[in-house]
Amino acid sequence: MTVTIEKLENNQVKLNIEVESAVSTLEYDKACKKLAQRVNVPGFRQGKAPKNILEKYVGIAAIQREVLDSLLPNIFESAIEEHKFDLVSAPSVESYDFAEDNSLKIVATFELKPEVKLGVYKGMEIEVEEFKNADDVVEKELKILADRYATLSDVTGRKTIATDLVNIDFDGYVNGEEIKGGSAKGYMLDLGNSNFIPGFAEQLVDHEIGEEFTIKVTFPEEYHDEKLRAAGAEFNIKLNGIKEKVLPEINDELAQKVNATFATLDALKEDIQKFADNNAKMENEKRVANKLFDTLLEQTNIDIQDTMINREIQALMGEFRQRINMQGGNFDQMLEKEGHEKVYAQMKEEAVKRIKTSLIVGKIALEENVSVSQEDIQEKIGELAAIYRTTADNIVAEIQKNVNLLHSMNQQVVTEKVTKLLIDNAKVKYTK
């Protein structure tokens, strides 16, 4: 058996493989025996059909494909290992030809990862705008917690104000026609935190219990119902009741309501400050990492082939479509509105950045002998279990069903280790 390598343009490699008659004939006979065990040939017991009968029943082409499936994995593996090829995707068989004497010629192609010419990645000097918590971060969080534990009290003897919760009946109309789903009885609306149509909640201020009145609003241009986009509407309102929030005092009792482990308000404050400081640390690490990778992207020369870019664009489009659909939008309509060329250009820019970043991470990992241990995977499984509120065993079960999940976890671990290496060796100057 002989294998010759031919390097082509765009990081492609061609393999010309010649398998001598003795080898291919032996593999052909093995393939016949395997197929005879798998197919039922009328008139013969399982596995006992002669080769000439099997060839007529399943076809010579099917047997030849079985030969290729048997031979090619080892041939490809040997070529990849010998020449240290770093593949982008699985090898592709371009053609094969069985001669009369059963000798075999195969032409296959590999697509290789582009060469990455790294610059200096250790000791990089960068400037990053530092994130700092506001001086009153603890006080603001305490107010949020107090609001969370507020009680509601019925209000009488005054008109509504912007912080009230109101009980209303309403009916909506556009051009005199009732809006489908635009009416309700006894609806409770928080005027200070409303996600209704802009201007709706604001017009419910300064009204009395029992009052009936009409308000006018305009639906947003991006409203999910096309028929109502930018449409003017009228809503008939009846105000049934008013409630106001009664905030608890910010004291030891509130701290204990938040969590029984907090015996005092000071203990709660300390926990809030610790959480805020940790968030600030993580935000600054993220900013440093982004700046480091942006710098590496600028100084690293990588010639990426179009096939890689196009595959990544398709992956990004798929992710974008799924995200838009999950949010209740329509991907095709969004694409039409934004313009195919504009969206494609944005996707291409992101695709190139993703590919380059991945290649840089891989190159640094190779240079620094970054590896993934069993402990790393176990830790990552634990993180995923916490995020999805499930057990580690369930994550392991998902990995067994989808090997790509394990590959993704390995990539995450490598990226995290490389990122930490870059941060630990960087010279960072924080600016205000």
Summarize the structure in words.
With 432 residues, this protein is α+β, with helices and mostly antiparallel strands. The protein has three domains: 2-112, 2-Layer Sandwich (Alpha-Beta Plaits), CATH 3.30.70; 151-246, Chitinase A, domain 3 (Roll); 263-431, Trigger factor, domain 2 (Orthogonal Bundle). It contains twelve helices and 13 strands. Strands 7, 8, 9, 10 and 11 form a five-stranded antiparallel β-sheet that branches. A four-stranded antiparallel β-sheet has the order 1-2-4-3. Strands 5-12 form a two-stranded antiparallel ribbon. Helix 6 (265-299) packs across helix 12 and helix 10 crosses helix 12 (403-424). The termini are far apart.
Distance between the termini: 67 Å
- Please name the fourth-level CATH homologous superfamily of the largest domain: Trigger factor, C-terminal domain
Tell me, rounded to a whole number, the average pLDDT: 91
Using only CA atoms, what is the Rg?
A: 33 Å
Number of domains: 3
Low-pLDDT residue intervals, each spanning 5 or more residues:
none
Count helical runs: 12
The computed structural class is: alpha+beta
At CATH level 3, the topology of the largest domain is Trigger factor, domain 2
Order of helices and strands: EEHHHEEEEHEEEEEHHEHHHHHHE
Q: Report the count of strand segments.
A: 13
β-strand percent reads 15-25%
Largest sheet: 5 strands, antiparallel
